């Protein structure tokens, strides 16, 4: 689901419950696995390639990642989709989180094709995920949760995709 920047920031604040760091209170592991499996199947069909999937990440608020291989992408750079345990949040990036300053930067550098990004965004939206831009997740975290001490400059990415 595509939302405005203000709506996304409001959603991040709404999902931020300091008593539940790794997953929300009413988290359903089976539902998360089924939706994630649907995402993997959809991306494999859309890109015509086997996608690597890592799921049920331990001690993390990230549920898992789907990696579209570079040879299936127009620009030759792999596409990584990170899925949070919270609110069906999803992040799309070229190569790896943090490799570029977001999808616009990756497109400007010729590492991410707009049509490929549209395929991924469409799949996520149709499966009920909320796509959050990497730039939004990299904003300084200022919520009520106590994030791990090993994080020097906490961001919203650390809150909803980081390790605890």
Shape: globular
Strand-residue fraction?
Answer: 15-25%
- What structural class do you assign from the helix and strand content? alpha+beta
Query: Low-confidence stretches at least 5 residues in length (pLDDT < 50)?
Result: none
Number of strands: 5
Main β-sheet description: 5 strands, mixed
H-E order: HHEEEEHHEHH
Compute the separation of the termini in Å: 27 Å
Radius of gyration: 15 Å
Return the average pLDDT rounded to an integer. 94
- How many helical stretches? 6
Task: Assign a percent range to the helix content.
Answer: 25-40%
Biggest β-sheet: strands ordered side by side in the sheet: 1-2-3-4-5
Structure explained in plain terms:
This protein is an alpha+beta fold. The protein has helices at residues 5-15, 29-47, 103-108, 114-126, 134-137, 156-161, and strands at 52-55, 62-68, 79-84, 89-94, 130-131. It has a five-stranded mixed sheet, covered by helices on one side. β1 and β2 (62-68) form a beta hairpin. The longest helix has 19 residues, at 29-47. The radius of gyration is 15 Å and the shape is globular. The two termini are 27 Å apart. The mean pLDDT is 94.
Write the layout of secondary structure elements.
Blueprint: H1 5-15, H2 29-47, E1 52-55, E2 62-68, E3 79-84, E4 89-94, H3 103-108, H4 114-126, E5 130-131, H5 134-137, H6 156-161
Parallel strand pairs: 4-5
Antiparallel strand pairs: 1-2, 2-3, 3-4
Helix pairs in contact: 2-4
């Amino acid at each position: 689901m595509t939302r405005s920047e203000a709506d996304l920031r409001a959603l991040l604040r709404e999902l931020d419950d300091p008593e539940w760091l790794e997953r929300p209170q009413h988290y359903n592991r089976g539902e998360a696995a089924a939706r994630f499996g649907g995402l993997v199947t959809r991306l494999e069909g859309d890109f015509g390639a086997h996608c690597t999937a890592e799921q049920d990440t331990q001690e993390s608020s990230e549920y898992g990642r789907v990696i579209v291989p570079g040879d299936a992408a127009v620009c030759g750079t792999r596409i990584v989709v990170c899925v949070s345990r919270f609110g069906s949040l999803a992040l799309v990036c070229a190569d790896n989180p943090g490799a570029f300053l977001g999808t616009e930067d990756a497109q400007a550098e010729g590492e991410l094709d707009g049509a490929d990004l549209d395929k991924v965004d469409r799949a996520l939206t149709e499966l009920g995920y909320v796509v959050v831009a990497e730039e939004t997740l990299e904003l300084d975290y200022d919520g009520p949760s106590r994030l791990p001490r090993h994080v020097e400059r906490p961001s919203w990415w650390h809150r909803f995709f980081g390790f605890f």
